């Protein structure tokens, strides 16, 4: 993340946002944002996601020194964020780990990008289905009734 401060500053300027605007959007102080842009501090993952969203770039773009593609990893981030919304941070970490391990299956293969996207969509769907089934199976009936408003 050597280029993170530079990329953050450039993305903020391209979005025509002041430090105060971006700090407010990310839920941090302007002082914290200044420290991020100077390379004196590193934001927490949730702050990083908020900043990327406010700037219209991906976390991958901000944190990966080897890419200058502002949309790098967007589809993957969208998939992980969809799981995060339903199952929280633990679920997001699990699906992210599962997707990372699955990349090795596709390395060096002849699948086009559309086929790879279909694979990861199916993987995410399977994860969500299993997670929902586990909730039904292992959540006590009384807790399910309270959750469902019965």
Describe the fold and architecture.
- This protein has 150 residues and is mainly α.
- It folds into 2 domains: 4-63, Orthogonal Bundle (434 Repressor (Amino-terminal Domain)), CATH 1.10.260.40; 74-148, no CATH class.
- It has 8 helices and no strands.
- Helix 2 packs across helix 3, helix 2 (19-26) crosses helix 4 and helix 6 crosses helix 7.
- The longest helix has 33 residues, at 74-106.
- The protein is flat and about 50 Å long.
- The model has no long low-confidence stretch (mean pLDDT 90).
Average pLDDT works out at 90
Listing every helix as H and every strand as E from the N terminus to the C terminus, the arrangement reads HHHHHHHH
Termini Cα gap: 49 Å
Rg on CA atoms, Å? 19 Å
At a glance:
With 150 residues, this protein is an all-alpha fold. Helices cover 74% and strands 0% of the residues. The protein is flat, with a radius of gyration of 19 Å.
Task: Walk me through the topology.
Elements: H1 4-14, H2 19-26, H3 30-38, H4 45-55, H5 59-63, H6 74-106, H7 113-138, H8 141-148
Helix pairs in contact: 2-3, 2-4, 6-7
Identify the notable features of this structure and list them briefly:
single chain, 150 residues, mainly alpha, 434 Repressor (Amino-terminal Domain), flat
């Amino acid at each position: 993340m050597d280029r993170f401060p530079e990329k953050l500053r450039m993305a903020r300027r391209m979005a025509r946002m002041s430090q105060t605007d971006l700090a407010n959007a990310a839920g941090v102080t302007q002082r914290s944002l200044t420290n991020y842009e100077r390379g004196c501090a590193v934001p927490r993952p949730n702050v990083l996601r908020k900043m990327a969203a406010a700037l219209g770039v991906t976390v991958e773009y901000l944190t990966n020194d080897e890419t200058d593609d502002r949309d790098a990893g967007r589809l993957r981030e969208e998939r992980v964020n969809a799981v995060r919304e339903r199952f929280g941070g633990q679920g997001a970490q699990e699906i992210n780990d599962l997707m990372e391990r699955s990349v090795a299956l596709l390395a060096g293969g002849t699948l086009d990008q559309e086929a790879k996207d279909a694979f990861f969509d199916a993987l995410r769907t399977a994860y969500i289905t299993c997670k929902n089934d586990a909730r039904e199976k292992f959540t006590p009936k009384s807790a399910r009734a309270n959750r469902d408003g019965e």
